[in-house]
Design brief:
alpha+beta, Alpha-Beta Plaits, 182 residues, disordered N terminus, 9 strands, 5-stranded antiparallel β-sheet
């Protein structure tokens, strides 16, 4: 069961897909102010790529309310991935590349999934050189020891995922979790 804070307020983690990359701009300060105007509390962001932690006092249709204001104030229709901290930690714990992440978290990635996905594993394995991946119902984990920019497998995985998803490197994932604990 999720942990409640301050009289029933729930600590949440939100990942916004595709902001501040490829020309899609979302000023994090303005975005945090927008979230506060909706009644969310202790709103904090991590780096400029759509990672936010906040306390939710029980806002009805949280995702819908945020999406509506995001469109109204910033003209963006980005996918939102919202988790309570316990769910986020559960997703993290399914990563089979934790040892590799401790060595270099910039080479381990979590692709957070909006819904379960199906991949043609045998086809994807033909693109792997040094990379490895693992699919769960909530995330796809990728270890790309030579970097994601050089990984043909990473490109093919993203094309094969037919569900909404957003990716973060493991350093970012850990930092977001730590931010949610403060």
């Amino acid at each position: 069961m999720p942990v409640s804070y301050d009289g029933g307020k729930m600590r949440k983690i939100m990942l916004v897909r595709g902001v501040n990359v490829g020309g899609v701009k979302l000023p994090m300060k303005g975005f945090c102010e927008m979230l506060q105007s909706l009644g969310l509390e202790r709103v904090r962001s991590y780096i400029q790529s759509g990672n936010v932690v906040f306390d939710d006092p029980g806002l009805p249709d949280l995702k819908g309310a945020i999406a509506k204001e995001l469109k109204a104030q910033f003209g963006l229709s980005s996918a939102l991935f919202i988790y309570d901290r316990e769910t986020f930690e559960t997703i993290m714990s399914a990563n089979p590349f934790l040892a590799e992440a401790r060595i270099d978290g910039a080479r381990v990635f979590a692709f957070f999934l909006d819904e379960p996905a199906v991949l043609d594993v045998s086809a994807l394995q033909t693109y792997a050189t040094s990379e490895r991946f693992h699919l769960t119902n909530k995330a796809l984990f990728l270890h790309a020891p030579d970097g994601i920019g050089r990984s043909l497998l990473a490109e093919k995985v993203q094309r094969q995922l037919k569900v909404l998803h957003t990716a973060r490197n493991w350093n970012t994932v850990r930092a977001i979790l730590e931010l949610s604990k403060s």
